[in-house]
Amino acid sequence: MDALFPAKSAASRSSTWVRGPVWDGVWMLNALWLAPLVLWLARGYSDPGSSPLDTFYFGLTALFWIGHRLCSTWLAYCTEAYRPLLRKEPIRFIVLPLVLTFGCFAVFLPADAAFPWTRMERFVGMAILDYALVTYHFAAQHFGALSLYRARAERAGCELTRRVDRIFALGVGGALVFLSDILAGSVAYQNLWIGRWLIPEWITSKQGEIREAAMLVLLVATALMLIAEARAPHRSLPRVLYILGLAAMVVIALRPRSLFLFLVIWTAQHWILATGLASQTAKGEPAPASGTIRRAFHVLNARPWAILLVLVSFSILLLPVFEVEANWDGGTYYGDRIFGAVAVGLRTSSWVPALVAIGFATGFVHYVLDRNVYRMSDPRVRSAACGLLDRPCKLRAPSQVPAQRP
To answer: pLDDT digits over 203-240, tens only?
Structure first.
């Protein structure tokens, strides 16, 4: 990373923002406006799910949920910037996603009698696995955002800061959130966890004490991060704001008023950040030498607003398809409000097992591809993610790219 961000004078130092205070405030630092807005919309309602907050969450879900899941797929397969990486690492980008997809169909398409477990039992097992993966996935995104801002502040080579960022993101954005889910009873099929595996029964009977202890841990960890940032040679206001936003979300998670409040903030923050990043990542890519489809994709990639429009369109159109898997065991179907009988028909059709398989497959592939396209420790990924690093993309042959740091 030192080679990517060489020493510069203060006058020529690049901005610590990804694009600017306004854009970063809307997309990267969205927790700072989401948290107060969510609390305001639910004010005065005993059940936030019956407040204007539900309509607000319906809008966010329709606009960003599925679109964010397809962001890394778009970057991997529809950009010139990532094409050399796609050719160099077919296992990561092609073989593994295909294996995950076929595996999900192999789990859900066979009838109940085909395996020792019924289709519903297989769904429960996959849902628990998905919950564990998505909890880590959310925490990893927080680490990625802090790392991006660390790089923008020209501190990418600081191993100590990188280590502290990882501990904070996984500890606060992962472990404390998992703990709050246990206390709120929102872990996937929690009745199968309590008294088994890693969750003893006494956790649910000591909620008050555990919440207070977790809040103390959160305050101490946040204070240490802010002190470290204040003492850094190149301070970063965006990093400070991101740390405060993450801490604010976890504070709401640890307060037992309503699970719905935290669900809205936690998921919307993740979706909006992922969509915003995808719109900027490949905007500096070079034009393709040939190919009508590749040229059409390039026209979109060079215009962040066009990428946003494409992702939002996908999100709205595919909402009823993916809700089949997301709410198969019960939940609110927002797709009914847009598509009506079409959405209801999908849930009662013979295609349900295939739709459930598609839902899990795209989720698992999303986790893998997100890791692949934002793995900034790899010089080839840094070369591809040029839009986030404030420099033009350079498509180089694999032999010209330095080896990945171990």
So the answer is: 666 778 888 999 999 999 999 999 999 998 889 999 99
Q: Is 331 left (phi over 0), alpha (psi -120 to 50) or beta?
A: left
Give dist(CA 13, CA 15) in Å, integer.
Answer: 7
DSSP of 45-110, one letter per residue?
-SSGGGSHHHHHHHHHIIIIIHHHHTHHHHHHHS-STTHHHHHH-HIIIIIHHHHHHHHHHHHHSS
- Residue 352's H or E segment, with its range, is helix 352-373
- The string of DSSP letters for 269-293 reads HHHHHHHHHHHHHTTTPPPPSS-HH
Per-residue CA distances from 268 to 190, 249, 275 (Å)? 23, 11, 11
Q: Which 3 state secondary structure label does DSSP give 17?
A: coil
Element (H, E) at 259: helix 259-281
Task: Look at residues 68, 57, 140, 64 and name the one whose alpha carbon lies nearest to residue 362.
Answer: 68
Which tokens go with 127?
Answer: 């849902």
- Contact (Cβ atoms closer than 8 angstroms) between residue 373 and residue 366: no
Judged by DSSP in three states, 164 sits in helix
Q: 3-class SS at 125?
A: helix
Using CA atoms, how far apart are residues 236 and 15, in angstroms rounded to an integer?
10
Question: Which conformational region is residue 291 in: left (phi greater than 0), alpha (psi within -120 to 50 degrees), or beta?
Answer: left
Hunting for tokens 């939940």 — which residue is that? 331
Neighbours of 237 (CB within 10 A): 15
**pLDDT beneath 70, residues of the chain:** 1-14, 188-205, 256, 391-406
